[in-house]
Amino acid sequence: MTQPEASAVAVVSPHFCSPYPVDIAIVRKLLTITDGSFVVTDVNGNIILKVKGDHLLDTAGYPIITLRQKLISAHERWQVFRGKSKKSTDLIFSAKRSSMLQFKTKLDVFLAHNTTEKVPDFKVKGSWSEKSCVIYAGDNSTIVAQMRKKSTVKSELLGKDHFMVTVYPGIDYAFIVALIVILDGINTASIPTVPN
To answer: DSSP secondary structure string, 129-142?
Structure first.
C-alpha cells in the first residue's frame, strides 16, 4: 500500500490540508443520536470541527458543508454541498454503497465533476462492527486516511464513540470527517433522511 504524494487534495477547502500527517479524534455522543452530534478534536483535545444535525461546522459555528441522504436511493447515496446550500451547483461530492448487499462496508465517492461515475474518485473500505476503515484515492491502493475505534473506560461510561483518524499529508481532513460521518449515518441512521 502506498501513501499519496505531498500535493494537496482539497475537496472541501485547501484550508483543511496539511503538509504533515494529521491525527484527529471524532467523538460521537451516543446519548444524542437524534441530532447526529459529533465533535472533532486535534491530538491536544482542541476542537477543530463539529457536526450538528446535517452540518459540518467550523470552530465559530459556521456551516462548512451540508450532508444530505437521498430519500429514494438503492445504494444509500449521500450528497455533500458547500455551506448551507442544497443546490446542485454547490454539490462537492457524493458517496454511495458500492453494492446493495454488503458484509463489510464499501463506499464509492464521486467528486461533483465526475458525472459519469464510471470510476470512483475515492473508496472507503472497512468493518463498521470493528469501527475501522481505510480511505483510498481513486480505485487503487493509495491510502489517504485510516480510522480506528479508541475504547477507553471514560468513553464507555460517558456513552460516546471515539474514533481516531490519521489523515495523510496533503489530504483535506474536513472531507475525511464528512466521509466518516456518512459512514456512521449509513450504519446507525444518526443523521435524519431528508427529501431531495
So the answer is: GGTEEEEEETTTTE
Kindly give the residue spans of alpha helices, DSSP state H, lying in the chain: 153-157, 173-188
pLDDT tens-digit series, residues 117-165: 999 999 999 877 777 899 999 867 899 999 987 655 444 444 456 788 9
Which residues are 135's β-sheet partners? 124, 145
Residue 104 grid coordinates: 463489510
- Cα–Cα distances (Å) from 134 to 106, 107, 122, 141, in that order, read 10, 11, 10, 10
Cα–Cα distance, 12 to 42 (Å, whole number): 18
State the pairing for strand pair 22-29/160-167: antiparallel
| pTM confidence score | 0.83
- The DSSP H or E segment spanning 153 is helix 153-157
The candidate with the shortest Cα–Cα distance to 177, out of 31, 45, 58, is 58
Helix (H) or strand (E) holding 14: none
What's the CATH class of domain 14-188? mainly beta
- Cell numbers 430519500 correspond to what residue? 71
**Ranges of each domain in the chain:** 14-188
